[in-house]
Amino acid sequence: MSDTPVIPEEPIQKARHPFVEAWEMFRRNHAAVVALAVLVLIILGAIFGPILYATDPFEMVWAPFSPPGVDGYLLGTDYLGRDMMAMVLNGARVSLLIGLAAAVVSVVIGVTVGALAGFYRGLVEEVLMRITEFFQVLPTLLFSMVIVALFGASLPMITFAIGVVSWTAVARITRSEFLRIRELEYVTASRASGVKNLRLMFKVILPNALPPIIVQSALMVGSAILFEAGLSFLGLTDPNIVSWGQIIGSNRQYILDASFTVTIPGLAIFVTVLAISLVGDGLNDALNPKLRQR
Amino acid sequence: MTEPLLKVENLRIELKLRDGVAPVIDDLSFELMPGESLSFVGESGCGKSMTALAIMGLLPEGIGRIASGKLIFDGEDLTTASEARLRQIRGNEISMIFQEPMTSLNPVITVGEQIAEVLRTHQGLSRKAAWDQAAELLDAVRIPNPRSRVSDYPFQMSGGQRQRVMIAIALACKPKILIADEPTTALDVTVQAQIFDLLRDLRAQTGTSIIMITHDMGAVAEMAERMIVMYAGRKAEIGPVDQIIDHARHPYTQGLISCVPHIMSDLTETREELTEVPGIVPSLREFGRDQCLFASRCKYRSGECLQHRPPAKGFGNGQISDCWHAEAL
Amino acid sequence: MSETENKPLLDVENLTVRFEVSRGGSWGKRSYLYAVDDVSFTVKRGETLAVVGESGSGKTTTALAVARLVPAYEGAVKVGGTDILGLEGEALRKARQRVQFIFQDPYSSLNPRQRAEAIVREPLDSLSTKSEAEKQEIVDRLFAAVGLRKEQQRLFPHQFSGGQRQRIGIARALATQPELIICDEPVSALDVAVQAQILNLLRRLQAEFGLTYLFISHDLGVVQHMCDSIAVMYMGKVVEHADRLSLFNNPLHPYTAALLSAVPSVDRARREATRRILIPGDPPDPVNMPKGCRFASRCPVAEARCRESAPDLRDVGGGHRVACHLVDERAVSPLAALT
């Protein structure tokens, strides 16, 4: 052959951060993108709303049951003549905060329990999973009502009560992911490299177990908001704070006379939880590596 | 001269990608004689399995389609046949066995029932007759105690036995063509040898043509009379197995043969470095270009390789190589 | 060669690995699966020993036990004279620097959340006390040694092809400058054309760094190319152990002969010369192993004594060791009588 042999090289790809890739995948789920925009609006409203619209949500400002748009009150007034707009904006803070905080509580408990059970197996797993099952079979609403009734209806206690009853799902997901991943060769490879157990658990296995946990936590924020609404509706809440559930609860007797006092916060809960679910769905697409190569 | 059983003419299969289409099979023509054993060889991603799926009429729906060309089976063009007709042919006149015997069997149904079902649907046998024949088929694929094993579930069998059951199912209706897609890749080498023996004997007894898809040149040498080397959706070389192994006329074929350390009859102390085929198979996006797709990995590459698709060049006995430098090799 | 040639680097003595299996679920009754049963072999410094066998032979478990990645039940694994099975803590980490592992599946053996450079650096991070600058220099050198480019250090595993991924795995195994590298089926998950690249690389690195390989494989063609001596395993036992030429040219154990005869070959001369030795049936239940030779149920020449007592692995001359009652000092294959 007269040609000089050329040794071609394999093409190399550009380094792209996994976050960039995840965003690419997320973007393809249009519903999730819209939901994300809505969610961002709601969060901005919760943060800046009460500052820009500085009406005290507890103060009687006008005659009760003033319908939305009338007399300068965009969302009307409730049965005590309080400004609904101020209540919904302030309630958003509380509802979102409780939702987030409760999700964080349950993720911390759930991941710790699931990681220990899935990593160490054996007796540790037996004990931890029996405890998990114990919490799973508790009637959740009843249990959190007992906690709140016993320890008082303060914001941290409500958050804790919701977190304590909802961590089991996270624990189960984390455990099953740990069980799967600990058998993969790269974990064995890390052990062969002398990596210590704690680092193995949280630096090697956990990051790879995160996608389903993240999706589950996102959905958990939504369900925690619903849970809080349920507790407030039953009156198990701090009377010195407004939350969406509490607005519904306190106006429930007037649902026939002034339905807007219930539907407006109800709609707020509905839109927020739906948006969170759709974002969770989008996250599932974005973080699920099986879909990535399409 | 007998008529070919299967005649593939200028077959082109397109696969839908996110941005456009890619020809996963590009202008493929070949013939399969009755009773012949033909092998498709190549790395993964070269379109070997796609050809088989096209013949079976099992291209992934909505993603892959036959864009042009003909698949003439026993005088009938399968590309224009109705779905109902294809179903009749599938499993009856052309059947297929897959790589993974673990997942190709239904885990909750006994193996006897799985064989009998094929016989009942395609041959209209009664329940009793189908069951009896299932046991006979298990015997034919050399599973010991077929009368009792026929009511076993797949998990009660070893990998090799499951693959035998798959062969029994495939052969249930005495097909004219048996397509084996990497039938032994998941199996141990001694089991592979048994499966090869079985396929060879069954072919001798029933006269079934066999199309075997593999990446293993050794397996081709053992099993096939003719081979088709596929690269990036195109035929690289076709011809009689022994002739190609003795003198391959395509650099890819040469690479496939010499990059694997074979056990030779005269083993010596010295061991040469293996010939490397650098790089990897191009991505689907690059399929279909008007150039030699192997050029990026080829040490004989010259200007024309990059400008035009190489023409087919014949070398007697039906050996054809699609390479600009075929004569010089 | 120098005088170090005769000193074995790895000396495995009576290694046994067993797993507890639950059968039937009755309390208190335990049965064990002896995945590796009383296995002994040595590997000389700078050489390659292949452990071959089919699925269920215990070859991978042997490899993992030698690397302290599964616990051994009994026996000793001596690396350069010290038994590493009893080591814990700092001493074990010292030993790990000397023994590294290359895994079978380049897709699952790299952490998808780590960049290539971090993967290669991981053994240094946990086993060495080198400075960051030194580590980076080592990583740079390793990338060059395995044929990857510097720009690729920042990439994540899924941005590499299978062959490139295996190169990363090899670089990781080389990071602590080990003496012994255990290669567990390093090419069986790769495409044929890529296998050659990796096999050539492994041989080049062996020559360059004076490495000793324990090479686990089911592919006799690859083994024949890579190894100086071979141990054939069947059902947790070594049935034959010999240097490359003796084993391939004069396989003495009937199982080895069957295994060799089953390998398809492109060499017409070999195809015509080999007579296929069929071994019908399936291997015995690994939990209830027969008391005699484990191969007896499938062996074409088995006799009554084979089913009665298990044969020991013994030297039949020239270091060729076989575990078969029917092979004596004349080192003639018992299958020769068949024809």
Can you walk through the features of this model?
The complex is a heterotrimer of chains A (294), B (329) and C (339). Chain A is an all-alpha fold and 294 residues long. Chain A contains 12 helices and no strands. Chain B has a domain at 6-90 and 225-328: Rossmann fold (3-Layer(aba) Sandwich), CATH 3.40.50. In chain B, 32% of the residues lie in helices and 23% in strands. Chain B contains 11 helices and 12 strands. Chain B has helices at residues 48-56, 83-89, 111-123, 127-140, 146-149, 159-171, 189-206, 217-223, 241-246, 251-258, 303-307, and strands at 6-17, 20-32, 37-41, 64-73, 76-77, 94-97, 177-181, 209-214, 226-231, 234-240, 312-314, 320-322. The model of chain B has no long low-confidence stretch (mean pLDDT 88). Chain C has one domain (3-338): Rossmann fold (3-Layer(aba) Sandwich), CATH 3.40.50.300. Chain C has 11 helices and 12 strands. Chain C has helices spanning 59-66, 89-98, 116-127, 132-145, 162-174, 192-209, 220-226, 244-249, 254-262, 268-273, 304-308, and strands at residues 8-21, 31-44, 48-52, 74-79, 82-83, 99-102, 180-184, 212-217, 229-234, 237-243, 314-315, 321-322. Chain C has an 8-stranded mixed sheet with strand order 6-7-8-3-9-10-12-11, with helices on both faces. A 4-stranded antiparallel sheet of chain C has the order 2-1-4-5. In chain C, helix 3 (116-127) runs parallel beside helix 5 (162-174), helix 4 (132-145) packs across helix 5 and helix 5 (162-174) runs parallel beside helix 6 (192-209). The longest helix of chain C is centred in the middle third of the chain and has 18 residues, at 192-209. Chain C is globular, with a radius of gyration of 21 Å. The two termini of chain C are 42 Å apart. Chains in contact: A-B, A-C, B-C. Chains B and C meet through helix 6, helix 7, helix 8 and helix 10 of B and helix 6, helix 7, helix 8, helix 9 and helix 10 of C.
